[in-house]
Amino acid sequence: MNTLRRRGIPKPIPHIFEDVEFKRSTRTKPPNWKLFGLVVICWVLLIHYFERTIPQKALMACKWNNWEPWQTPSSAHRIVLIADPQIVDDYSYPKQFKIINYFTKKMADNYLHRNYEMIHSLLAPDTTIFLGDLFDGGRYWDDKQWIDEYKRFSRIFPKKINRRDIRSIPGNHDIGFQTIHHKVLKRFAEYYGELNDYIELGNHTFVLLDSISLSHPDHLIKKEPDEFLNNLNNHINTNFPRILLTHVPLYRFPNIQKCGPQREKNKPFPLQRGDQYQTVIEYEISRRILNTIKPALIFAGDDHDYCDITQEYDGGIAREITVKSAAMTGGIKHPAVQLLSLNTNENSKHTYTTEMCYMPNAYYGLYTYLAFLLLTSVFIDRSIWWLNIIWPLFILNVYYMTI
Fold first, then answer.
1. Based on the domain organization, do 53 and 79 belong to the same domain?
2. Per the domain annotation, does 12 fall within a domain?
3. What is the pTM of this model?
4. Among 292, 296, 309, which residue's Cα sits nearest to residue 340?
5. In the predicted model, is pLDDT for residue 3 greater than 80?
6. Are 129 and 244 in contact (CB under 8 A)?
7. Quick check: is 26 in a domain?
């Protein structure tokens, strides 16, 4: 008997090759370069706005002719005072990750350098004066590290041709306060010039005083500023108004001598001392400085915030201004420099005028960059997401190098 054999219906062959081909085509799909090109253009526009347009706008508001009262402003001697740049180093944030510290340095350096270059291109001061704390950990460095940071500082603040530049006022971050080593003091003077000196600018005598060393108990440390102060009046022109430049502010009574409305902090000026710092020079030393120099005007730094008070001395009064820090890392919201215009040829009892010039807020740009980075990362192909980090860093570096 014949048995019928059932023929099985062949099962369909799975589309293995089609699936593989589909997956392969999916993986090798080229990125959307047009979209990325648009993102790059947006990055350029965004960076240009925060690195050029905003700073230019801020400095244009400080143009000399906006606030100078002189009838012949072209004859004025114009000065920019920069306080506490305190460039970030390994001592600034010792507990911070190295990669974060690296980018903090780059960003802070870029901010200082950009503003400095724009000040010179837009305001064109005759003289630039630094009021100390050029470095942060300068008092601790050995010679090799100090030289490296000195070169870095010079790159951030390159000297300008045919313009005077004064950098010899030491701060406590440069030489220390309670502990000052003679070697550190000598090194600073060798590279930046005499720490105690007087200079005639615009029919005024500027007295540069190392009040930190003058406050030190060691006779060898305080000898030079002490002798300078004793002999000063035998040398300087008695006909010119005097302007004192020092790092640490002179003693004051904060509840009486109030800083004024331009100070960010609401609290009175602090009277404190701590590890390698003191917020004011001692009372007796301050009285000696005032009664010897008899200044019409005093500029100091150190506090990082603005303070404008009046100091009295035997036979006169002086206006003392504590200049704001110019650094974005100075612990204040609005860094600034101080502008000073000297009357050189007009017969007037007003021989100077001064104005604070605000620098742009660095963090607005930073927050905008981060927000735009997160936003664009959603739309950019994952295979090239890293380019969305590399390109803005490259563009920022180009802007830093070409200013």
1. no
2. no
3. 0.88
4. 296
5. no
6. no
7. no
